[in-house]
TrEMBL record:
Keywords: Carbohydrate metabolism, Cobalt, Isomerase, Manganese, Metal-binding, Zinc. Pathway: Carbohydrate degradation. Its EC number is 5.1.3.1. It is an enzyme of class 5 (isomerase). Substrate binds at S8, H64, G140, F141, G142, G143, D173, G174, G175, G195, S196. This is Ribulose-phosphate 3-epimerase. It comes from the Bacteria. It catalyses: D-ribulose 5-phosphate = D-xylulose 5-phosphate. It comes from Nonomuraea glycinis. GO terms for biological process: pentose catabolic process; pentose-phosphate shunt. The active site is at D33 (proton acceptor), D173 (proton donor).
Length: 217
């Protein structure tokens, strides 16, 4: 279970995205939050900016789609070259088809669950995904407080993943910082999204390195 760090550009300076991306060369992924102002009460960016980032970034892109119609849009993000595309279970009406489509287009397929969504009903989908994303805040904004109540679910999700062979990555997103990352790692997460904890730091590269060493324990 190798630790991976995925800085979220939601907390970066959107006017200087190329520089902000270059500031985290020691990260594993670049987490890009696509929000449509319907699934979540916030609006960020879409396909054209993801395409621009793909050209500007040396890191692979981890696209987190917080949109009402992921079945319609997710394949397009895989098609342009995102390394990973994650859809929300609460928003998808045909997750099996969409996840298979993402994979067939060469991207890793991710399934995201909000804090109040139980993981057990998705046990049968674990064979269809490469990553399970557990939200540790309500989706929509950076800089929110980590929800401790999700920790038991992280543990249970790790158990389900192990029963399926242990190949699926377990990502946590929201309020992940030097104060909370160890608890997440202990509970079984292995991919850590961090927005404000990285882009709110003066030295972004040092922030990534210290999160990684805390997660590695
Ligand atoms: C929130 C987004 C997160 C956000 C996390 O809905 O999915 O990726 O950027 O920000 P922090 O790490 O500041 O909580
Ligand atoms: Zn996210």
């Amino acid at each position: 279970m190798a630790v991976q760090i995925s800085p979220s550009i939601l907390s970066a300076d959107f006017a200087r995205l190329a520089d902000e991306v270059a500031a985290v060369p020691n990260a594993d992924w670049l987490h890009v939050d696509v929000m449509d102002n319907h699934f979540v009460p916030n609006l960020t960016l879409g396909l054209p900016i993801v395409e621009a980032l793909l050209k500007a970034a040396a890191l692979p892109i981890d696209c987190h789609l917080m949109i009402t119609d992921p079945d319609r849009w997710a394949p397009a993000y895989a098609e342009v070259g995102a390394g990973s595309v994650t859809i929300h279970a609460e928003a998808s009406s045909a997750p099996v088809r969409t996840l298979r489509e993402i994979r067939s287009l060469g991207a890793r397929a991710g399934l995201a669950l909000n804090p109040a969504t139980a993981v057990e009903p998705y046990d049968d989908l674990i064979g269809e995904i490469d990553m399970l994303l557990l939200m540790t805040v309500e989706p929509g904004f950076g800089g929110q407080k980590f929800l401790d109540m999700v920790l038991p679910k992280i543990r249970r999700a790790r158990g389900l993943i192990e029963r399926h062979g242990g190949e699926v990555w377990l990502q946590v997103d929201g309020g992940v910082s030097a104060d909370t990352i160890e608890r997440c790692a202990e509970a079984g997460a292995d991919v850590f999204v961090a927005g404000s904890a990285v882009y709110g730091a003066d030295d972004r590269e040092a922030a990534v390195a210290s999160l990684r060493s805390l997660a590695e324990g």
